[in-house]
Amino acid sequence: xxxxxxxxxxxxxxxxxxxxxxxxxxxxxxxxxxxxxxxxxxxxxxxxxxxxxxxxxxxxxxxxxxxxxxxxxxxxxxxxxxxxxxxxxxxxxxxxxxxxxxxxxxxxxxxxxxxxxxxxxxxxxxxxx
Length: 129
Fold this sequence. Notes:
The protein has one helix spanning 9-13; strands spanning 19-23, 26-32, 35-40, 44-48, 54-58, 67-76, 80-89, 92-100, 114-117, 123-128. By secondary structure, the protein is mainly beta.
């Protein structure tokens, strides 16, 4: 059987919409001030239609001890439901700095267990390989 268990409704309605995901060739470091909250050489680079590219960092490379889940959520008809986390870095707290699709649609399973960060809420440094 070639049917998907959890297909994205967005692709059915808009088959011309494109999302590509490929490994980022380099290292990504995410920080708040002097505090590093993620660093990875295994990030995924997601490019969706005309939106800016987004780096998704594996959960294993994120310091969840610095993050606090929030009640915020959003829905994407192509990726699924996103959950959000705020960062608590000592004397600095920033709301909803990271989001993740913990149960993405089948087409986006490659970003499951990966978090993405807002570049206007944290510092994101990339070093190409």
